[in-house]
Design goal:
The protein is mainly α. It has four helices and two strands; from the N terminus they run E-H-H-E-H-H. It has a two-stranded parallel sheet with strand order 1-2. Helix 3 (37-49) packs parallel to helix 4 (65-83). The chain is elongated, with a radius of gyration of 15 Å.
Amino acid sequence: MSNPPYIAEEEKRGMERNVLDYEPPEALFVPDDNPLLFYRALAVYGCEALTVGEKYILRSTAGFLMKCADCCRAWIIRKSKLVGI
């Protein structure tokens, strides 16, 4: 399971103080212009490290959920073409 930073900087204004006061910013926020930064790296890693039938779980905000899924799906398709699946 991975819980990388996944909240866009622009969303910071609407967040509760109890989150902002107790979590380091590096653990929460990604750049507005590159919100899938960590998901791309995890997709690449997953394609290399996981074997058939294995899974990993990623957490994201609702706004980025489909983009994260698309990112992972693209790497899976790319790997399957490279290994001839």
